[in-house]
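Complex 353.
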Amino acid sequence: MKTFHNPHQALHQGQQEMFRGRLVPCHEVPARLDFVLNELQRRPLGALEIPMVADTELEAAIARVHTQRYTDFLASAWDHWVAMDPANAQRDVLPSVWPLSNQHAFRADVLPTNFAARLGLFAFDAGSPLMAGTWMAARGGAACAVAAAREVLGGARSAFALTRPPGHHAGPDFLGGYCFLNNAAIAAQALVDGGESRVAVLDVDYHHGNGTQTIFYERADVLTVSVHGDPMTEYPFFLGHADERGAGPGTGFNLNLPLPRGTGFAAWRAALDQGLQAVKDFGAGALVVPMGLDTFEGDPISGFTLKTEDYLAVGEALASAGLPTVFTFEGGYAVDAVGVNAVNLLEGFERAA
Ligand SMILES: [Zn+2]
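Predicted structure with zinc ion bound:
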């Protein structure tokens, strides 16, 4: 299994996030990738490559999933932030005002001149700081997703997009949950555009993949399945409930499998098997796995109790789908364990594939 990694991803390095009323050091740190890279050096799965994707091709792949006004915003956010106040050059970009657009109390069709307002329009939380290198880092991650999709389209059984910042909370025109560009959705769309008529996304991160769900919610060619902490108590709260089954032509092509905080491997695995059955019933030709390792018992912001050795079995189970598979790297904040857990999952997949 090839791994695609882009050194630009280290340019995204937030100082602080708003977490339950306090500014705390960011949980999503560059060291997360270093631990995975170190473990891949110790237990190689295959070649480690920098993605070779031309700028125009990358921009086209991103534009298949995200709106122009959103990517324009991301590309220029840092410059606008510093233009508001030169002292901002020392501070991360964080929003402080939101339009509550889904209640129609405020308008979301207006793009205010004021940058602080624009920021609130495109961000759904204050936990996802932007900085000077965020756009380049996010693009670097998206390039990994495109390269991994191409690898699979070229006949490889699997490929790993070692992406950072993560992506599965980012929607067509919004960021949040440490995510800016939805790498899993970009990979899934690249697979569709490359000729796969049916692609499944099976999200195993602790948190619901709300961005991916939103991107494909009205489509019948991409099945989205997510096994995650019950949003009644767990982030992102406002999406990920079991009654969300898709809309319009996409009705029946979204499956949420929320589980209570405290869930251990046996019950989690039963939900995963239900998700895998849905992938099989759908008749997918390829699979994308947004791979979060924050289901781990030691994760500081999550609540399942999977153990390091369980990830080998998770990988084996995912391989049982028998599909060409792209993995994108999502959450996992027990930083010193994330490398071993990630490589366990991928090694379990390789053994069984
Ligand atoms: Zn997560």
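Residues 134-153 form the longest helix (20 residues).
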